Amino acid sequence: MSSEAQQTEEWADVTPDAARRLVTAAVEAFAERGYHATTTRDIASRAGMSPAALYIHYKTKEELLYQISGVGHRLALDMLERAADGGGSPAERLADAVRSFARWQAERHTTARVVQYELGALGEEHHAELLDVRRRTDGAVRRIIQDGVTAGDFDVPDVSGTTLAVLSLCVDVARWFKPDGRRTPEEVGELYADLVLRMVGAARPEA
Amino acid sequence: MSSEAQQTEEWADVTPDAARRLVTAAVEAFAERGYHATTTRDIASRAGMSPAALYIHYKTKEELLYQISGVGHRLALDMLERAADGGGSPAERLADAVRSFARWQAERHTTARVVQYELGALGEEHHAELLDVRRRTDGAVRRIIQDGVTAGDFDVPDVSGTTLAVLSLCVDVARWFKPDGRRTPEEVGELYADLVLRMVGAARPEA
């Protein structure tokens, strides 16, 4: 899939078209220069629009960041809850969760960086709302690991610390991943699923 | 140790005193607002100095970032080469490397974030120089893992991918660590040393 097609898919739920163009322009600008160094004028100009046209869709720069960060956080939550609620053994569900999440961080590394690094720039209410989404995301992974411990499939002395480390390992893919690097997003997902199963003391399930 | 004492220790090699004050002011400003949104005037003012006084020590904002990033990169390299060259089994050396590096990322999370997230803002030559330091840092961890594989102590199908994951896990501590959180830097170091020994298929060495 082309990078442009991926971007359209990533923001498919953002309508109308002009709002979607502003969101993709904002992601690029925030990733390049940081949230605080970007003006709404920069974003409008990247989207080929006037500042007044931007204002119809987003009253403030913070609203744009909230839109971007909200979509990113909810995608992660859906992905990890789907894995947690899926069929199969705890090891299969954990491998599935890590494989999809790490792969997504690689494929959407530009958006993922903005989502992670600019959390502190959100307004208080938006920040609190997304912290709650993060807690639920964390809860989905913790649930799989706890299930594995309860079933006697995993050996994990510190469930909450291991949950934190698993999520952190995946999130940091967005920092180091380069599209022209040695590994595809799929390969990163496979490698990480294997490493995480080792972290929880599980044998890798047969594919 | 107080936070102020830690900062003085962190930048002990930066002299004279005025240059050190500028460096700590720049770290704070870059961490809060990002490199591109920070002016040399902001930095001088945080350090209680005039822009002209700043200019005596650093000709550009980029020189300040290079100073900060250079110190951070060289500290990491020294720490990991010391662990790689230390005595003991590969498992002991790997645990030592991860324990110190993860702990350092927690203790110095503000500096570490600036070092990691603003790499792209460095000038071309400085960027190339620090990428070379990163390659050597990577090489130190790879060497320990390879030694463990050669000795038959580790079971690692992908040495370079596992090296990348080990470093990434430690670096991302700077993103999520909070001084008022549940774990001390020492506890993070211990947890991570254990998780990484699991990743490489080694039993934890007795302390």
From TrEMBL, chains A, B:
Matches recorded under Gene3D superfamilies: Tetracycline Repressor, domain 2 (1.10.357.10)
Molecular function (Gene Ontology), one example: DNA-binding transcription factor activity
SUPFAM superfamilies assigned: Homeodomain-like, Tetracyclin repressor-like, C-terminal domain
Domain HTH tetR-type intervals: 16-76
PANTHER family membership: HTH-TYPE TRANSCRIPTIONAL REGULATOR RUTR (PTHR30055), HTH-TYPE TRANSCRIPTIONAL REPRESSOR BDCR (PTHR30055:SF200)
UniProt keyword terms in alphabetical order: DNA-binding
Organism: Streptomyces xinghaiensis
DNA-binding region as annotated in the record: 39-58
Top-level taxonomic group: Bacteria
Nucleotide-binding is among the record's keywords: no
Annotated protein name in UniProt: TetR/AcrR family transcriptional regulator
Pfam families: TetR_C_24, TetR_N
